[in-house]
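fwd from M.: "can u put these together and see what the complex looks like"

so here's what she sent:
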Amino acid sequence: MKFSAAFLASAAALLASTLPMATATPVAARDVFVPPITYPHAGTVWYIGQTHNVTWDTSKAPVNITNGKGIIMLRKGDLTTPVILQNNFDIRKGRIEVRVPWVVDGSDYKLVLFGDSGNFSPNFTIKGSGVAW
Ligand SMILES: *[C@@H]1O[C@H](CO)[C@@H](O)[C@H](O)[C@H]1NC(C)=O
Ligand SMILES: *[C@@H]1O[C@H](CO)[C@@H](O)[C@H](O)[C@H]1NC(C)=O
Ligand SMILES: *[C@@H]1O[C@H](CO)[C@@H](O)[C@H](O)[C@H]1NC(C)=O
């Protein structure tokens, strides 16, 4: 069965207006925290070997998080690489230092911050290898 977007929107509005506030949000989604990355941003340039604080917005963090441990991985183009920049940190901290790894130069890098699920940073640049890709 296929519902139109308009039907779904009006059904959602009806639900929201008839249910008490507390049950309007699905219980399973309440503790899932997918924080947006605030640094690096579009236009950021990192050089191999530097250390930087990756930052993310924790203002919407629920009291109880399903998975409070974070992992930061590196993406290039449309692929998540196996490169782990940091692991096993408290996702409520909002920042973590990473060292820029030895990778080919490129302007299509992104970070992925995993907690309950992954969030991508904007594209940013890594330089310093002298090898363009
Ligand atoms: C990262 O943030 C911490 C805490 O504010 C600070 O002590 C540290 O110097 C920062 N590191 C860099 C590379 O800026
Ligand atoms: C968070 O978890 C604690 C311990 O399980 C519980 O007592 C508390 O009610 C929970 N808070 C919320 C807002 O779910
Ligand atoms: C980011 O990089 C990807 C992969 O190269 C590209 O498809 C996308 O258009 C870029 N996004 C922006 C906002 O430049």
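replying to her w this: The helical segments are 5-18, 21-24.
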